[in-house]
């Protein structure tokens, strides 16, 4: 039975999904204004292991993680580089996704971007306002914190003001000092920010502006997953204000806590301090990937329980490299081992089974990867003593059980030990596009056809362009040419 540490209650709880055998997971993704660092990789990998464990347990998993693609830092960086925030986002998102792919992080089912969710964000803000928990002031909209009873105890924690070291998004709460007069209460945070000259902006009922950071996640979850999901994840630093505010918004709008389980991963520390952009003490993923095999990095980051801090160091990575190689070599050794079925190794077989069970029990206990990996070391020791020191053979049955154990370790931890492993079933089965994804793909395909059609028309190849229109009409899709632009809709 899987238990997860729920930060809403500050204790481990038995996981009960909203819908049987299904689990919905949303994880706050990066703000794309600079190269991703090891702290980002840790968060992505921690929740990837959680997702993989659910897949291993035969759950149908919906996994969504966003990109914050508009914020003050991005505007600054884009201006410095003389590019648009969209160009900056595209460049950094593709670099991030390439790194995640190399680190064997399963692709998200959906990875929404804030700038593609503006309409839903506006509607969500309107709902909060209608319920009386937000107000407009000088073209911006603020969440009225004092109106929401229990705000300060959403997560059982002491309510403190943020320290000066806090992360990048403080603009939403801190920079409001600048706008202190606009707010009714000190703790109020921006849902919609009136745009300053030269900033990217969108039309809204309160005037041109852009969304605050917190409203983004609440709106995306609502758009793609509904009003209540199973698990919401992110780094520990997000508990306040980000996750507190996400919950406050959703409570105010629809009356749910947004997710039943709130899980937070520990920091990656560098020389005792949290690795972060704002402290400028980070090591980028691409820097580490130049030095170490991606599987070594993954092994390093998964060998520590997701809630514990990792003290990042080259020595630690070196040690991980050696340990990983030992496990990898052990896998190869067992895989190629000649077995002998006349030998009595039932005691050894029981040892393997017990270790394998303990491994799963450790994962059931709030994904305790440290303990789970220790079971691998344990069984390696027992097997090596048997084969090398006692010079005894093992049976096919023990070999198969052992390989099954190691293959399952590989699948769940995402650490590949050998090209001989058959891990495909796990990953391909997990990746059926959701209905929402299929809809997105279909829209993109129609847009693509419209683009091709206008190119053909420009080249005066009307026979082919008309054919496209005709075929689309047959399929129930109507095209409307409005000057340069063509819009489409389903025929009623
Ligand atoms: Zn978020």
Description of the structure:
About 3% of the residues have low confidence. The relative contact order is 0.11. A hairpin with a 2-residue loop joins strand 14 and strand 15. The longest helix is centred in the C-terminal third of the chain and has 24 residues. A four-stranded parallel β-sheet has the order 4-3-9-10, covered by helices on one side. The protein has a four-stranded antiparallel β-sheet with strand order 5-6-7-8. The two termini are 49 Å apart. The protein has 492 residues and is α/β, with parallel strands linked by helices. The chain is globular. It folds into three domains: 293 residues, Rossmann fold (3-Layer(aba) Sandwich), CATH 3.40.50; 114 residues; 56 residues, no CATH class. Zinc ion binds next to loops.
Primary descriptors:
single chain; Rossmann fold; four-stranded parallel sheet; four-stranded antiparallel sheet; 15 helices; 15 strands; globular
- Fraction in helix: 40-55%
Number of strands: 15
What is the ordering of alpha helices and beta strands?
EEEHEHHHEEEEHEHEEEHHEHHHHHHHEE
Number of helices: 15
What's the shape? globular
CATH topology description of the largest domain: Rossmann fold
> What's the arrangement of strands in the largest beta sheet?
4-3-9-10
Integer average pLDDT: 91
Low-confidence blocks of residues: 162-176
The ligands bound in this entry are: zinc ion
- Tell me what the CATH architecture of the largest domain is: 3-Layer(aba) Sandwich
Task: Spell out the CATH superfamily of the largest domain.
Answer: HUPs
The main β sheet shows up as: 4 strands, parallel
CATH class of the largest domain: Alpha Beta
> Beta-sheet strand percentage?
5-15%
| CA-based gyration radius | 26 Å
**Whole-number total of structural domains:** 3
Summing up helix and strand content along with how strands pair, one would put the structural category as alpha/beta
Distance between the termini: 49 Å
């Amino acid at each position: 039975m899987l238990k997860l540490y729920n930060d809403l209650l500050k204790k481990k709880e038995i996981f009960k999904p909203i819908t049987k055998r299904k689990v919905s997971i949303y994880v706050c993704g990066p703000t794309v204004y600079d190269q991703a660092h090891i702290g980002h990789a840790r968060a992505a990998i921690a929740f990837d292991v959680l997702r993989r464990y659910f897949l291993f347990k035969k759950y149908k998993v919906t996994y969504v993680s966003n990109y914050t693609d508009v914020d003050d830092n991005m505007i600054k960086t884009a201006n410095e580089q003389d590019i648009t925030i969209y160009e900056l986002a595209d460049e950094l998102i593709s670099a991030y996704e390439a790194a995640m792919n190399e680190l064997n992080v399963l692709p998200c089912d959906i990875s929404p971007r804030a700038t593609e969710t503006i309409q839903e964000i506006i509607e969500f803000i309107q709902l909060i306002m209608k319920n009386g928990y937000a107000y407009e002031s000088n073209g911006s909209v603020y969440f009225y914190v004092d109106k929401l009873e229990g705000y300060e105890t959403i997560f059982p924690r002491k309510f403190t003001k943020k320290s000066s070291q806090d992360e990048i998004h403080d603009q939403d709460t801190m920079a409001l000092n600048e706008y202190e007069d606009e707010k009714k209460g000190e703790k109020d945070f921006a849902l919609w920010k009136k745009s300053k000259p030269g900033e990217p902006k969108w039309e809204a009922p309160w005037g041109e502006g852009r969304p605050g950071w917190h409203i983004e996640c609440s709106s995306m979850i609502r758009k793609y997953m509904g009003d209540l999901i199973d698990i919401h994840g992110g780094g520990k630093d997000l508990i306040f204000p980000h996750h507190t505010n996400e919950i406050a918004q959703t409570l105010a709008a629809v009356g749910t806590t947004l997710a039943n389980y709130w899980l937070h991963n520990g920091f990656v520390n560098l020389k005792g301090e949290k690795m972060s952009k704002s402290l400028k003490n980070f090591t980028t993923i691409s820097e580490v990937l130049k030095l170490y095999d991606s599987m070594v990095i993954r092994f390093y980051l998964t060998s520590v329980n997701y809630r514990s801090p990792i003290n990042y160091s080259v020595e630690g990575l070196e040690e991980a490299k050696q340990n990983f190689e030992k496990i990898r070599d052990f896998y190869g050794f067992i895989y190629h081992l000649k077995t002998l079925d006349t030998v009595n190794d039932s005691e050894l077989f029981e040892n393997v089974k017990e270790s394998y069970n303990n491994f799963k029990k450790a994962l059931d206990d709030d994904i305790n990867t440290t303990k789970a990996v220790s079971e691998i070391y344990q069984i390696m020791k027992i097997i090596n003593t048997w084969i090398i020191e006692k010079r005894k053979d093992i049976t096919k049955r023990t070999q198969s059980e052992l390989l099954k154990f190691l293959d399952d370790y590989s699948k769940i931890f995402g650490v590949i030990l050998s090209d001989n492993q058959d891990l495909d079933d796990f990953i391909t089965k997990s990746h059926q596009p959701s209905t929402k994804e299929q809809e997105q793909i279909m829209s993109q395909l129609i847009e693509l056809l419209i683009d091709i059609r206008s190119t053909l028309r420009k080249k005066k190849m009307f026979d082919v362009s008309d054919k496209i229109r005709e075929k689309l009409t047959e399929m129930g899709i109507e095209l409307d040419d409005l000057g340069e632009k063509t819009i489409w809709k389903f025929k009623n």
